Every structure is written in structure tokens, then in C-alpha cells.
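FORM 7B - TANDEM STRUCTURE REPORT

SECTION 1: FIRST PROTEIN
SEQUENCE AND C-ALPHA CELLS:
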Amino acid sequence: MTPLGAKLRQMRAERGVTLKHMAHAIGVSPAYLSALEHGKRGAPTWFLVQRIIVYFNIIWDDAEELCRLAQSSDPRIKIDTSGAIPEATAFANLLARSIAELGNDDFLQMTKIVEAAHARKAKD
């Protein structure tokens, strides 16, 4: 499941909306919406995200969060390490081979490391 998929499922559950009803209302098939929630489809288009925002009557910060989640919910990402140091390519390949074996704590630790590096780079 993707971050967007988890959020959609949570919002549907909170509002008592079935997958079939939501899919019909936003103009997609129930099979597509289910695949989107389960991470079996790529990130949705901007237009589909807008239809979801309207459907749930989401405003401001919540709408921005949904857009951010959609952007970070492509389950088949590509990491281009051309021009990076050799360790970056080795790490990207190791991560690709072992990502399914990692737990939540592992991801939290790696996220902190990457965010700290990003913050250092932003200061430069």
C-alpha cells in the first residue's frame, strides 16, 4: 500500500464510503481505485487528485497533504545515480534488493538521515 492509498482508505472508512461508490463518483473503475490504494498502479494524475479533493471536500492544508502523498506514492520509482558517487549506486541497488525486508524503524532511521542531508544541502 502506498501513502496515498493508506490515506484514501482511512478517509473512506471515516466517512463510511465504499470503494465502489467513491470510484463511480470520481470517474474511475472500482478495480482501478483498489489497485491505486494497494500500490499496484502508479501515482495518480493531478486531475484525479483534484477530483478526490473535491469528492471529500478537502481544503487548504489537507488538500496540500493529499497532493504531497500522491507525489510520493509511485510504487515503481526509478533512481538515477548517473553522476553520483559509486557508493550511491551501490546503496540504491542494495535498497532495491532488500526493501521488502526492512521494517518501520529502519525506514524512520533512513528518512532522518536523508532529511538531515537534504537540510545541509539546502543551507549551502
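SECTION 2: SECOND PROTEIN
SEQUENCE AND C-ALPHA CELLS:
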Amino acid sequence: MKVLTDANVGEIVKVKKNEAQDSLKERLLALGLTAGANIEVLRRGPKNNLTVFRIRGAMIALRKEESRLIEIM
């Protein structure tokens, strides 16, 4: 299973499944992290804890623990 934290900078991936629970799942869905959505990895933070993604035209930063919950193709 490949997750969003495995994607490299510059890569464009597609969301397969959102494994988050409760309010975090709702937040990620509201940000556009739905099945089939394309995500571009733009850059990583200083300690690789934060990563900036382009999702449906918006730039969004997610922590590593949040990105681990998104399964990609």
C-alpha cells in the first residue's frame, strides 16, 4: 500500500482512499482529498514533517501523520 508520504516532490498522484477518522476525515474531504483527486507534491518542510501539496488548485500543507492516512495510486 502506497501512501501520500511516499510520493516524491514534483510527482502527481491520485487519491485511492482516505483512511482518516472523524473530524480529520471531514477536514481532509473538505480540502478536496476525495477518491480520484489528483495531488501534486510541491515541497517538503525543513524536517520533512510538513509537505505542501496542490490539491484542486489550492496549496495545502499537511503533517506527516495526516499524509500517512491517504492511500494513493
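SECTION 3: OBSERVATIONS ON SECOND PROTEIN
The CA atoms of residues 43 and 66 lie 16 Å apart.
The chain has a mean pLDDT of 94.

SECTION 4: SIGNATURE
Preparer initials: ____
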